[in-house]
Fold this sequence. Notes:
The complex is a heterodimer of chains A (501) and B (75). Chain A is α/β, with parallel strands linked by helices and 501 residues long. Chain A has 16 helices and 26 strands. Among the domains of chain A are: 7-11 and 21-167, Rossmann fold, CATH 3.40.50; 331-407, Luciferase, Domain 3 (Luciferase, domain 3); 412-500, ANL, C-terminal domain (GMP Synthetase, Chain A, domain 3, 2-Layer Sandwich). In chain A, the strands form 7 sheets. In chain A, strands 11-12-13-14-15 form a 5-stranded mixed sheet. In chain A, strands 16, 17, 19, 20 and 21 form a 5-stranded antiparallel sheet that branches. With 75 residues, chain B is mostly helical. In chain B, 56% of the residues lie in helices and 0% in strands. Chain B has helices at 2-11, 31-45, 56-59, 62-74. Chain B is globular. The mean pLDDT of chain B is 91.
Amino acid sequence: MKQKNVLEYLEETAPRLPDKVAYADDNCELTFSQVYNASRSIGSALSNKGYYNEPIVVFMAKKPQTIATFFGCVYGGNYYVPIDPEMPRFRIELIFQNLNPKAVICDEESLPLISDYEYNGDILLYADISKTEINESALTSIRRRQIDTDPIYIVFTSGSTGVPKGVVACHRSVIDYIEQLSAVLGFSEKTRFANQSPLYFDACLKELYPTIKFGGTTYLTPKQLFMFPLKLVEYLNEHKINTVCWVVSALTMISAFNTFTKVKPEYLKTIAFGSEVFPIKQFRRWREALPDATFTNLYGPTETTGMCCFYRVDRDFELDEVIPIGKPFDNREIILLDENNKAAVDGAVGEICVRGTALTLGYYHAFDKTNEVFVQNPLNDRYPELIYRTGDLGKLNERGELIFVSRKDYQIKHMGHRIELGEIEANVNLLEGVSMSCCLYNKEKDKIDLFYVGDPEEADLFAQLKEKLPRYMLPNKVKKLESMPLTANGKLDRVTLQKSI
Amino acid sequence: MNELLEILSELHPDVDFEAEENLVGDKILDSLDIVSLISEIDDKFDVTIPPEEIIPENFNSAKALYALICRLDEE
């Protein structure tokens, strides 16, 4: 029978490899049986409390126990919402407002921090619920009740109005993604991942689920190592890491500083990257250092569950070329739509739209926002069929490979993160004494410049902004202006501002 | 030293870099900062920091970083 629940991965692997390490960091290792038992206990605890089909906030830092808690939420028939206490306070507040959760799971470390927030619901402690006696009959009846379009997680992405949007994904789209991704990248029981992505982005699906599907191992790489290339490569070697799925900037950080002249990742065989353009100069250094490894470019918006296109690098590229995003994984289709909602043909540029099981369910508590981008396929006037409009522009090259061209709007990709410049501006405008602001993105240097008019001094404004925005959304330069250039209609004149810098 | 302080303040206008002694440990600098710092230092001081010197000890304070630049400049 076809798989319908992501937990079937764990249930197949845990009895087969009970004592093998599934997830590890510097402080803790969890074996498959430990993950299995802890998550079933957590599911039982949630069920005993009567939670079903609820968003459960997992308010914990990145560690193996956090992942077991995710599965625990799903065992209870709920969906997990990862919130790392390191996220900016204001963003966490907005997420809480959107979710209005009934239950939050903390550990000893994050428990004192939750009292900073206006949250009066139930707080469950990992140490308790991961030891709760397993309630077999409850877990069995939950499983019988669940269907494959039930949600399993919500992750939040940037929203142009300043309010993050919660993308809700279900079993079916995650299973479909994990199956296709694993086939393309060739994961197996021998796969040893070094995770780079935070657990509150869908990027971590690439490690979390193949690990339980195959019985591989994921090492949660300490964030600080991504500042120190030599130590990072030594870490990869120490843990015999053979597979990384990282943002490009994490890879270029290693190659740009000539790390390969000192040390090379000896075991690395499979390298997947994405979320931003890989500068060819740096890419060549990687291929020279690891001539036998495979390199795969991945592309996909959170709204279509993880990644949806891939290109396995099979040729050399000139310095001014971009690596294609290739073709869609099996069981999804890319449609390029022109301005008139007609199919873009003959290599013309069109908006990249996705069709298939990969589509997530939409945005949480935001039906209008969902309906703006999850829309009826305009090429189909015969029966209901949803597509997701990515807002990315793409085209096919002469080889028939999909190429990313640019964004349609003010959304940018900065250090591998998807950012709405409007969200930064909306947050700046909220600060006291600020009358106007404008963000410009310098694509060549991959830097965000912020201009504003108002009372606060630059340093003060920046300090306030740190409270509101994640690190990757903070502008690289902040400049206070006497006045903003305006167009004849009184709108902000981005073109003139751009020229003035 | 002033030139280095200028580069640092541009990254984090709200930090007193003359006083801070634990920039890495206290998570004031992150990987994006390290990357920009190294390329700015290359531009402004014409000093290339080799991989074995990209370690926390050299980036924990403006003073330590400046000492590194001077040392590399002499070599």
